[in-house]
Design goal:
The protein contains nine helices and 16 strands. By secondary structure, it is α/β, with parallel strands linked by helices. It is globular and about 65 Å long.
Length: 334
């Protein structure tokens, strides 16, 4: 049989789905779009939800290079749901499997993914949201940070990513100093195991406080998880001689300047902890599935805001404006 097997075992028929189109800067439309059909080596996922990523904010603002309208579902890449059709040549994934998918048009009711870009979720995660891509990114950043027991780790920026890294670093036996501009975020950091918290307000005061907390030597590892110039500058200042500065923030709004004198003088190892190799992405997602399923990591309290698909604009605005109590927005399809 050619074509794709579906929930009822028949070849997929034509149909439609709801999908979001970003029509202009700050404007969405929900449209009926053609239901996609998996090709060879692909699966179709009936999406339950999709996380909202801060990387969406620059396209959402309408820069000169952005082309509107977007394709249906575009920008969404943190989806999870149930496989409802499989293409030819797919092995190890079946219709009915609940999965986290690394796909790129997930602001829609359905999306296609290559079979090697989905991870089957165990039954223990039934009913739980699982935005695999950001959870996988956190695991990959943690691995590249090479955090060891007894180290002091500074984390600059406690949002969704910084909170997860706080938990992972604490569980690895490190002493975490969490630095963030919102008192709410510092409360989250303490709940995730941070030994010390510092309000991110005055540059020099923060440096002096971390110097005091570390006996004048600063941090073995510092993870910058904001994606702005000042936090990057600050993170370097907080990294000890021969320490490791990990750039986890997504710096997409323009070039950055660095204090190369400081970087040279302290002999810093600087890690750009962003991945483009899909297999590395998938390794992180698989590790995240294992961590959450085992109870080692519980991200449920970090999903602070949930919106229906037709309110994606509100979800993006909340991600941009970060109202009190905000860490991570999800959109749900039903």
């Amino acid at each position: 049989m050619t074509g794709s097997a579906t929930m009822d075992g028949n070849v997929a028929s034509t149909g439609s789905m709801r999908a979001v189109v970003v029509a202009a800067a700050g404007q969405i439309q929900v449209k009926e779009s053609e239901l996609p059909h998996p090709g060879t080596g692909q699966v179709r996922v009936r999406l339950e939800g999709c996380g909202v990523c801060a990387s969406n904010l620059t396209p959402w603002s309408g820069p000169d290079w952005m082309q509107f309208p977007t394709e249906p579902g575009a920008l969404g890449h943190e989806g999870w749901g149930v496989v409802d059709a499989v293409g030819d040549g797919v092995e190890g994934i079946s219709v009915g499997d609940r999965v986290a998918a690394l796909s790129y048009k997930s602001y829609a009711e359905y999306d296609l993914a290559d079979a090697d870009a989905v991870v089957v979720l165990p039954d223990s995660l039934a009913g739980q949201p699982f935005p695999g891509e950001p959870l996988g990114c956190a695991m990959n950043i943690f691995r590249r940070s090479e955090i060891e027991p007894g180290q002091t780790v500074g984390i600059v920026g406690i949002g969704f990513l910084g909170a997860i890294l706080t938990r992972l670093a604490t569980d690895a036996g490190a002493r975490v100093i969490a630095i963030s501009r919102r008192p709410f975020s510092l409360d989250v950091a303490r709940a995730m195991g941070a030994a010390e918290t510092v309000l991110m307000d005055d540059h020099n005061r923060i440096i002096e406080r971390v110097k005091e907390l570390t006996g004048g030597v600063f941090c073995d590892r510092v993870i910058e998880a904001v994606g702005k110039q000042w936090p990057l500058d600050l993170a370097a200042e907080l990294t000890r001689e021969r320490g490791r500065l990990i750039v986890a923030g997504y710096h997409q709004d323009g070039p950055r300047q660095v204090n190369m004198w400081l970087w040279n003088w302290r002999g810093l190892d600087v890690i750009n902890a962003h991945e483009r190799d899909r297999e590395v992405y998938m390794q992180g997602i698989r590790e995240a599935v294992a961590a959450v399923a085992s109870g080692r990591l519980d991200p449920s309290s970090l999903y602070t805001h949930t919106f229906p698909l037709d309110r994606l604009d509100d979800a993006l605005d909340a991600t941009r404006d970060r109202p009190d109590g905000f860490l991570k927005a999800l959109v749900t399809m039903r």
